[in-house]
Amino acid sequence: MNISFENQVALVTGAASGIGLATAKAFAQAGAAVALADVNGEAARTAADELKAAGFQAVGIRCDVSDMNDVEAMVKQTVSAFGRLDAAFNNAGIQNILAETADTTAEDFDRVTSVNYRGVWACMKHELQYMRQQGSGAIVNCSSLGGLVGAAERASYHGAKHGIHGLTKSAALEYATRNIRVNAVCPGLIWTPMVEQMIANGQKQAMESMVDFIPMRRHGRAEEIANAVLWLCSSASSYVTGQAISVDGGYVM
Ligand code: NAI
After folding, report:
1. Catalytic site residues?
2. Which residue's CA is minimally distant from atom 32 of ligand 1?
3. Measured in Å, how far apart are the chain's first and last C-alpha atoms?
4. What pLDDT tens digit does each residue of the chain (253 aa) get?
5. Is-above-0.95 flag for pTM?
6. Could you tell me the distance, in angstroms and rounded to a whole number, from the CA of residue 113 to the centre of ligand 1?
7. Which ligand 1 atom minimizes the distance to the CA of 66?
């Protein structure tokens, strides 16, 4: 099956690194004009410049998804750069500081949920305002295997990721008859700078031992998540909405 995004526009948040960057590149290679948004605006612009130098259409946008004004401006900038919005991957996310629920501060909880949960809602809100007017679109929200199972000392992250499933299903129901599909992807252990940061923060053993519980006995690559996102945004998945697809080497079954 040949998935093409010729004459289409894709928006990716958290696009300066890891899964977001790989997905932005995959959209560009499939023919889309791509808006790469990231709180690290300089890295987003550099990534967009690299795509442009390779002959693709791209724009880099600074956006903190926990800031409603930034999110509204991000969608406006995307549409003003390329004239429409066909696909959106709401991927920006951060890890939590490991702490038991009883010891987690309200500040840390708010920091994680404002990006990983409210940020996804904020992006959907403004993307959907545009897509419903356009009369078409596909959104994929980035959950996690942490959106399907619990884990000690990670309640804020896992709670936020679980919440994404409710946001996804509710929006999917709202727009099912309006040619707009909303799905989620649940990455397993994917080798990215986020995982490298977790290892640097003392979680090396936890990351290594996790591989023993992955049926495929390996971590995933960012490109393997990008492939699922492109499929979910493409006409190849035209009868799929409100779903959460695990891409995790069989970890959660
Ligand atoms: P990463 O750390 O490599 O990339 C995340 C990007 O998001 C960075 O460029 C960062 O600057 C950006 N970002 C952070 N806060 C932001 C904000 N407030 N607004 C806009 N951009 C922001 O991480 P990775 O691994 O690529 O993660 C991407 C998504 O995948 C996240 O939602 C993460 O929770 C999820 N995920 C990752 C897994 C993994 O094993 N790497 C496993 C399951 C889910």
Report:
1. 157
2. 93
3. 26
4. 679 999 999 999 999 999 999 999 999 999 999 999 999 999 999 999 999 999 999 999 999 999 999 999 999 999 999 999 999 999 999 999 899 999 999 999 999 999 999 999 999 999 999 999 999 999 999 999 999 999 999 999 999 999 999 999 999 999 999 999 999 999 999 999 999 988 888 888 888 888 999 999 999 999 999 999 999 999 999 999 999 999 999 999 9
5. yes
6. 13
7. 18
Q: How many residues does this entry show for the chain?
A: 253
The answer to whether the CB of 39 is under 6 A from ligand 1 is yes
| CATH 3.40.1180.10 correct for 9-190+225-246 | no
Query: What is the C-alpha to C-alpha distance for residues 166 and 57, in angstroms, rounded to an integer?
Result: 33
Ligand 1 centre to CA of 177 (Å) is 31
